[in-house]
Amino acid sequence: MIHREYLDYYITYHCNLKCANCSVGSPYIDPTFQWDFDSFKNDVDNLSKYMRINKLRFIGGEPTLHPDIAEFMKYASESDLVLHGVAVATNGISLKSMSSEFWKYCQMAHISEYANTTINYDKIYKWLDDNNKPYKKVHELLRNSDFKDRCIEKHGKEWMDGVTPDLGTFRDLVVREELDHDKAQEVYSACNMKDICHTFNNGKYYNCGFSIHRNFYYDSIGVKIPYDLNETDGIKIDDDDFEQNYHDLINSKEININACRWCKGFGENTSVKSENLPHRQLTVDEIQAEKIYH
After folding, report:
1. Residue boundaries of the structural domains of the chain
2. Helix-strand-coil percent breakdown of the chain, rounded to 5?
3. How many CB atoms lie within 10 A of CB 237?
4. Tens of pLDDT, residues 67-90
5. Using CA of residue 102, residue 104, residue 110, residue 114, what is the dihedral sign?
6. Which of 69, 91, 145, 218 has the smallest number of CB atoms closer than 10 Å to its CB?
7. What is the pLDDT of residues 11-48, one digit of tens each?
């Protein structure tokens, strides 16, 4: 049986903020909810045959925008796959309006604070405290928490330092043309995110979320990836050899996901240069200009 600390599940890609350098490309993506609940249930049931995770974390985009998120949370919480409940990664804007069903199944809200917005975080935290709702600020989660301690124990401090972002920034990750094999291998080898940002979608398991949302993002800004990363990357969940395929996927030293050919990565000291840029909100004109890039 495979054991993991957590898995992510992208329940939507769009968002109520317009952050520059959003890794999912949320500012360019229209409000759509194409995630099929039956497909989600099937994936959870099949993963339960091979895997146990402490938490399933719903992310986006902004996951609280999904009108049926509580239904997804309930099913995951009651499944054999998830041992200790579900979490939601959120900017916090919509938390006060979430249903009682949402809060029944939300074991923890992981709140990211974004600069250059009109969000009154103190007001949000006061409401959460007054109403006894479970939450943790992301900077506390990554820098002072049991989660960080468990990661250090399993992977070492140097590894954890490599995946702890500058929390006042977003990483510039977009490439306009496919990287050649050697550069893509550099990105793959240096990026620790492939060790922690595992997810699943529509019958497949991925060790990088970019494999499921990169085509969607790039299509929105007119950059055409010549193949479907959902198809080329990941492994089938209902395969009888899933456990062996899983270990092959995560232990490979050679690049085995094409998402790295369309990403600058989170690693350091590579020839594919990237940088952390301060949070800011895009203007309508900036969004429209990017969407007509080609």
Report:
1. 2-291
2. 40, 15, 45
3. 23
4. 999 999 999 999 999 999 999 999
5. positive
6. 145
7. 999 999 999 999 999 999 888 766 789 999 999 999 99
